[in-house]
What we know:
This protein is mainly beta. The protein has 2 helices and 9 strands; from the N terminus they run αβββββββββα. The protein has one domain (21-162): Immunoglobulins (Immunoglobulin-like, Sandwich). A 6-stranded mixed β-sheet has the order 2-8-7-4-5-9. Strands 1-3-6 form a 3-stranded antiparallel β-sheet, with helices on one face. It is globular and about 40 Å long. Copper (II) ion binds next to loops.
Amino acid sequence: MQFLSVTLLTAVSASTVSAHFAVIYPYWRGNSYPTQWTYPCGGVNQSISDTNRTAWPVDGGALVFTPTHDHAQTFVNLGMGNNVTRLNITIVPTFNQTGNGTFCFPKITLPKDLGIKAGDNASIQVIQLTVNGDALYNCADITLKADAVGPPEGILSGCINTVRRMSKEN
Ligand SMILES: [Cu+2]
C-alpha cells in the first residue's frame, strides 16, 4: 500500500508539469509523457505489461485517470488478449471531460456478450482528443479475476468528475 501511494503521487506530480494525462487505476503500462500521441498505447511497449498487470473484476471495475487539459473528448476502449493490437471494444461512450483533477469511473460494467472468463488478459485504452485535435493515448493492462480487489483505498475519494456527453453539446 505504501508503494502504491508513492507511485500515485509520482504520476500526479508528473502530470502537472508535462500536461497530457496519466492512468492511475488500473495502473498504466508506463510513463508515456514523451510519446503519448503514439497509437495505440502512447508509445509504451507491450512487453512491460508482463510484469505490470492489474487484477480487474471479471464483470468490470474502476478506472481512474488524471487529465491536465481543461477539456478533452475522451474514449475508453478494451482489447482482449495477451498482446493486444486492436482495442476495438467501446466500454465507455465518448464523453467530454471538463475540468482538471482526478477523474474516476467507480465501475465500468463490461458487456456480457464478450464471453470474458476469469484469468483472461486484456488491455484498456484511454484516448483523449485535445483542443487542437491531437490524440493522446494510454493503456493499462489487466487480468480479469473473480476475486479482484478494487483500487487502493483513498483513490476514489479524490475524484472530480465533470462530464458533458457529446450528444448534448451538438
Ligand atoms: Cu498535453
